[in-house]
């Protein structure tokens, strides 16, 4: 994928805009693409036909031909009409941020559940576009569909086929969810098992932390969205006769596209049964506060904000030279660690133990009542 990035600033301050474009570059790389050029435009309100101005469209068209790009990626979400019009003018594939995220997800999904969820998100994103697709774009979605009658429009046929597939996927996902729920039920009810969910912005170090805590090889990569399937691991504390189940989850991003939010709701739903949430934060990142807020907003959407949360401030080794420089954490719900160096992991173990004991005690109280 040889890409040109089109950054439209819709009134963000320069720092935020810069961060948005950097993240988009990261997404292109995660989709195994290279960024060959960037084009910017300031625009308060989008042009209904092209989002950007006609002059910009021409500029991009020439740049695409000049440097041989095959993809143009926008930092904003485009309407079906805009995609269609831009595709007519520019000889490259036009992607918006959601398309890009979906492409990455497509490549990464491994389990049947994740694959179905990505397909569902993709189809839901395509649905409103079908009517507006012209020419080459049509071949992108399902082939070999039967027509109902001679008078039926191609758009109608495709819409119907997509809707059928969506319904089928939803049924299959429900079935998988039911099975998973059954498996979870046994452990939820157990006073000796603490359920912990790892959440956080993509690339914050969730999988690294899971590895450190459980010493297992989880796929770790300096890429956005390395983890797409939820993975579960155990920690055993024989001294207190408790076990902890830790679930790694898909990373969050700002403005998570609705289609993805919906499709991955099932995955994130695993966090619904959690007794404790570990929110992993990369404090070496200049934008960590913004990212933290993004994650907290999503937790709120999932109605998880009531659960106890520990903020795990990770990658401190990138900020201080050695472990001796670690300062005591200010509050009980914050802990500064380095997942890769293993700093403060013992303290994190202590926190987990404390919660495991507390769960057992509360469960006991409930039984007495
Ligand atoms: N220096 C340093 N690097 C870290 C630390 N923890 C994680 N990393 C690096 O950060 C990158 C991302 O780590 P992952 O564990 O894959 O992050 P993740 O949150 O699981 O990412 P996604 O699955 O993509 O959402 C990798 O290159 C890790 O080696 C840390 O404590 N210190
Ligand atoms: Mg991961």
Automatic annotation (TrEMBL):
Mg(2+) binds at residues 207, 227. Its cofactor is Mg(2+). Signal peptide: none annotated. Transmembrane segments: none annotated. GO terms for molecular function: GTP binding; GTPase activity; metal ion binding; ribosome binding. The keyword Cytoplasm applies. Residues 194-360 form the Hflx-type G domain. Pfam families: GTP-bdg_M, GTP-bdg_N, MMR_HSR1. Keywords: Coiled coil, Cytoplasm, GTP-binding, Magnesium, Metal-binding, Nucleotide-binding. Residues 159-189 form a coiled coil. One of its GO terms (cellular component) is cytoplasm. GTP binds at residues 200-207, 225-229, 248-251, 314-317, 338-340. HAMAP family: GTPase_HflX. Belongs to the TRAFAC class OBG-HflX-like GTPase superfamily. HflX GTPase family. PANTHER family: GTP-BINDING PROTEIN 6-RELATED (PTHR10229:SF0), GTP-BINDING PROTEIN HFLX (PTHR10229). GTPase that associates with the 50S ribosomal subunit and may have a role during protein synthesis or ribosome biogenesis. Monomer. Associates with the 50S ribosomal subunit. NCBIfam families: GTP_HflX, small_GTP. This is GTPase HflX. The lineage of its organism: Bacteria, Pseudomonadati, Aquificota, Aquificia, Aquificales.
